[in-house]
Specification:
By secondary structure, this protein is mostly beta strands. The chain contains four helices and 22 strands. The chain has a domain at about 5-45 and about 175-215 and about 250-320. The protein is elongated and about 65 Å long.
C-alpha cells in the first residue's frame, strides 16, 4: 500500500518559561493544562467543512459553547477509493484494503481469488470464469448489498458504493470548545469497542481535520456473514448511503499535524473535544501509559487520545470527556 499525507506542523508554547496571552489554554488542578479545540486546524478553505459557534449542554450538565461542524462527504485532502478491483489479475492499486485480526490486507485480485482459502470456506467465489470480479454497479445495488439481510442475490459480491451517490449529503457534528474531563469513562453507544464505565455515549468517535467522521468499528462479521466484502480505501474509509464517506481506520492518509517533540502526529478531535493523535510516534513507538480509552496526559497536549492500530478496525475504546447530548 502506498499512503500519501498532507502534513502540517503544530508549534505549541508550553507554560514553563514563556508568556502567552492565549486564552485557549486553561489549567485543570487535577490534570494540568486543558487545550481548547483549535478550529483553525480544520480544512475550512473549501466548501467541504463549515464551522460555527453555538451554545450547547454536555452530558455532565455543563452549559458551554460548542463548535458546530457541517461537513460534506467529500474530503478535500485526498481522493476516495478505489475499493473493489475489476479482475483477479489486478494489483493493489486497483483496490482498497481489508481489516482482519489486527492486520491490514490489500484487496487486490489475488486477495479476491484466494478468499476461499483465506476464510477456509469454499462458498467464497467472487469472480467468473474470466476472472472478472462481481461488483455492485448501481446505487440500488449499494443500498441492497449493504443490508445485513441481503440474502443470496448479492452473495459473493464486492460492495463498492461510489462518491456520486452521496454528493449532496452533509453531516453535522457538535464538539465542546473546551473539553471537560470526567472522573470515569463513558462507553460508546451502538456496536463495537470495549465498554467504558457507566452511561453510554455516542457511537461515533471523532472528526478528522477534513470533516470526515472517525466512525464506530465496521460490522465486518455481518458483512462477511452475507458472503459480501465491503473494502475500505487506503485512507481507511468507505461509503454508506446514510453516513456518507467515513473512516474505520487511521492509516495516515488524511491530514495530520506533526509535533515538534517526537510525539505522534495529530489527526483530529474526539467528540469530547480532546485531541486525537496517531498510534505511533516518529520512532514507531506507541505510548506505554494509555488508559482504557487509549488516552493519556502530557504537559504539552493535556489529556488526549491515540488511535488504535489500523488493522484493529477501531480508533478509541471509550470517552473520558463529556460530549454533547
Amino acid at each position: 500500500m502506498k499512503f500519501s499525507a498532507i502534513v502540517f506542523t503544530l508549534l505549541v508554547c508550553v507554560a514553563c518559561g514563556c508568556e502567552s496571552d492565549n486564552n485557549d489554554i486553561t489549567t485543570d488542578p487535577a490534570e494540568g493544562i486543558v487545550l481548547d479545540v483549535d478550529a483553525s486546524l480544520f480544512l475550512t478553505n473549501t466548501s467541504a467543512v463549515k464551522i460555527t459557534t453555538v451554545p450547547c449542554t454536555l452530558s455532565d450538565g455543563t452549559v458551554t459553547d460548542c463548535y458546530q461542524i457541517v461537513a460534506t462527504s467529500t474530503p478535500s485532502d485526498h481522493e476516495m477509493g478505489p475499493w473493489c478491483p475489476d479482475n483477479i489479475s489486478d494489483d493493489a492499486t486497483a483496490g482498497g484494503i481489508w481489516l482482519e485480526n489486527g492486520q491490514v490486507y490489500d484487496v487486490d485480485g489475488a486477495f479476491i481469488e484466494n478468499m476461499a482459502t483465506f476464510y477456509n470456506d469454499t462458498t467464497w467465489l467472487m469472480y467468473d470464469a474470466n476472472g472478472d470480479i462481481y461488483k455492485t454497479a448501481t446505487e440500488d445495488d449499494c443500498a441492497n448489498a449493504a443490508n445485513p439481510n441481503v440474502g443470496a442475490v448479492y452473495e459473493n459480491f464486492c460492495v463498492e458504493c461510489l462518491p456520486s451517490y452521496v454528493a449532496d449529503l452533509t453531516q453535522t457534528y457538535l464538539i465542546p470548545i473546551t473539553p471537560v474531563k470526567l472522573s470515569s469513562s463513558l462507553a460508546f453507544g451502538g456496536p463495537g469497542g470495549p465498554p467504558g464505565i457507566g452511561e453510554q455515549g455516542p457511537s461515533q468517535r471523532g472528526i478528522a481535520f477534513n470533516g470526515v467522521v472517525f466512525d464506530a468499528p465496521a460490522p465486518t462479521d455481518a458483512i462477511l456473514g452475507a458472503y459480501t466484502l465491503a473494502p475500505f480505501d487506503d485512507a481507511g474509509g468507505h461509503i454508506n448511503l446514510n453516513a456518507g464517506y467515513h473512516y474505520h481506520a487511521a492509516t495516515g492518509v488524511s491530514t495530520k499535524i506533526s509535533q515538534i517533540d517526537n510525539h505522534a502526529a495529530m489527526i483530529g478531535y474526539a467528540l469530547d473535544g480532546h485531541g486525537l493523535f496517531a498510534q505511533l510516534d516518529t520512532d514507531g513507538n506507541e505510548p506505554i501509559d494509555l488508559d482504557d480509552c487509549r488516552g493519556h496526559y502530557d504537559d504539552t497536549r493535556g489529556y488526549h487520545y491515540h488511535a488504535d492500530a489500523p488493522g484493529n478496525n477501531n480508533f478509541i475504546n471509550c470517552l473520558y470527556g463529556a460530549y454533547v447530548n
